Every structure is written in structure tokens, then in C-alpha cells.
Amino acid sequence: MPQMAPISWLTLFLYFSMIFLLFNCLNYFIISHKAPMSESKMFSSNSLVWKW
Fold it and tell me: What is the pLDDT of residue 28?
């Protein structure tokens, strides 16, 4: 709508930017991330046996 004043565009931009950041932060922190496996578990003796 070209009749809107520039301050209205600025407030709408800030409003939607804050909603976007809030949405992304919530999506990131809602998911429970698993801790990475330790190297001793990654390289167990069974995984080093080659089957040729």
C-alpha cells in the first residue's frame, strides 16, 4: 500500500523481524540435542575388524 507512511513500514519490518527471530530461537531450543559420542565409543574394537 503506497499510501502508508515510511514509519509504518519501519514498525512492520521490526515487528516481523522480531517474530522471525523469536520463532527461530524457539525452534532451536525446543529440540533436545544429543551429546556427541566420545571417541572411545566411536572406535570400539568391533568396528576396527575388517572383513575382507
Answer: 87
